[in-house]
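hiii, so i know i said id send this last week but things got crazy w the move. better late than never?? heres the sequnce for the chain we talked about at the cafe, plus the structure i predicted for it. fair warning i was half asleep when i ran it
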Amino acid sequence: MLVDKTRVQLCHGRTPLEFLPNLTRSLGGPNIFIKRDDCSGFATGGNKGRKLEYLVADAIAKGATHLLTTGAVQSNHVRQTAAAAAKMGLRCLALLEDKVDVPTDAYQHNGNRLLTDIFGSEVKTYPAGTNMAEVVQQQVSILQMRGFVPYVVPMGGSTAVGNLGYVSCAEELMAQAKEQGFDIDHLVVTTGSGGTHAGLLAGLLALKSKTRLTGISIMGTHQGQTDLVKRQTAETLELIGAGDSYDPGAVRVEDGYVGASYGIPTDAGLAAISRLAREEAILLDPVYTGKAMSGLIDLVEQGRFAKSDNIVFLHTGGYVGLFAYADTFLK
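okay and structure toks below
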């Protein structure tokens, strides 16, 4: 095993690796599979559960009483952090920046925002443009003065420790493909805060896999996102003792599918959501996986892959966000 660090048990176990016959057929090839991390079994599923297994273990080892984290109002990460705190007997303080210009009642109160409340997190909301790093430090100081021990979980849980969840996922995925009798030529994933992308790449590099990993950016430019993932990949490889496996040239980012900005749905992303729902009965979300799937579909239609290639799309979850964007789908 690549990872021997202590973790807590949040997710149910290995998530499914499924073939998508209808999408494969409608696109005319290549063979498209999906890694169902939306089916992790923890707090409606999603990629943050894997990261939080290692982050919460680290927090407990350090005597934490609180998990303190940040994100947008509809953050999947904040929802799962709140759930992890509840499950492990910790308190959660969520600091939300209202940085996405969607002023509807559904966005402000439904979806992930609603579940964060239901999981029992304390929530503080700040206007767009707030220096959230300063806010975090202020809240850490307040909690410490009250005698508590806060553990800061950065946005997305994207630290070398959190990324271990996706080092393990890479190992799990390669084993599943071997069991099913095929090689993965390409792996496609959403890339935002960078940790899932970096963890997967670190795992693939440590395994000396020939699978090519591509991140579809949902927030950053090509250069900014590439630099972010390079740094996190290097740090993650060092943590697992495989620093000599680092290859900066293996970081591949496509940034043409962000649209207007983070959190604002694109027409192509909405079309991808409808397509997967109607062809494969799989739910994507408007912020992350919808945009990433629209990127994969576009790259296939551009002829960027061979017809015989086996492509795995890693589903990072987030369908709860559909309820926050109900007005978009009801137009």
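btw Residues 160-180 form the longest helix (21 residues). thought thatd interest u
miss u guys!!
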